[in-house]
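Could you help me review a protein record that somebody else here produced? This is what I was given.
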Amino acid sequence: GLDEEKYEILEISLPYLRTPVRPGRNIPTIIEVAARNHLLKLMGYHSAQELDRKLLAQLLESRGDPPPGE
């Protein structure tokens, strides 16, 4: 989620997203969430980075360490 892959078609760089899908999953919903996440990235909000930052801060807090940057 933190690394962004791209591929090129007709000299245009496009985002590449691998999404594992199992039988019985709601494919349209998965595609809609992926598209919304891409739009959020274009607007500057990276949800995977935000989750990573919050998890790291919580892990450090539980150990008694100060959060990064303090």
In short: Residues 47-63 form the longest helix (17 residues). The two ends are 26 Å apart (CA to CA). The longest strand covers residues 5-9.
